[in-house]
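Please, structure for the following, as tokens.
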Amino acid sequence: MHPDFPKAIGIDYIYTIMAKKEETKDLIENPEALQEKLEGIEHWAEKNIKIIAIVAGVIVLAVGGFFGFRYYVDQQEGVAQKEMFQAIRYFEADSLNLALNGDGNNLGVLQVVDDYSLTKAGNLANFYAGVIYLKQGKFPLAIFHLEEFNANDLLVQARAYSLIGDAYMEQKDFEKAASYYDKASSYKPNKEFTPTYLMKAALAYEKLNNIEKAKSAYQSIIDTYWNSSEVQNAKKFKAKLETNS
């Protein structure tokens, strides 16, 4: 045996592999042996026809259930978007209670969340509910709904993280605020909004007296977003921290 051959593989294992190869060769070269093999499979299938039928039925039900579920969600999506239309109009008009709870004829975003939770509209309703509660100073409720919201959108998901940070800042929980501002700034970074999130993170770190992290956030704006509207403030606040340290 070659010295590099794995010791765990013994001679019995080698004989087993060789026997299987020989069996395969016999099946290919001997039509009668192949016929016997096929008859054995056919006999097994006849003997276990109920099991095969059950497995096939489960597969059909699973596939049918999946497409049926997708059809149901798609139908719900259209309804949810229509139901949410008036709530968004109320929100844009700053009629926050009507947007949140509805007007008796049209649903508010809270009801859309409850009734259409599987839809994209229901997901977006969580975002609106979070923003409304934040404006109303109901910070735990704002955090709850904004954390329920999730999206791959370049802007809105980062915005949700930032708003959660705002809610924690209002409650003077600066550590969690900084954490969410960091999440906002690191989520699909871009020159339009990331500098603002970094400024908020820096402020939260200043509140925590974590000067090094605050300076690092300001420096990220200076180095990476040097042409943003926040860069002058970043330079000024960083210089102030360096002077006082």
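The radius of gyration is 31 Å. Residues 164-245 form a domain with the Serine Threonine Protein Phosphatase 5, Tetratricopeptide repeat fold (CATH 1.25.40.10).
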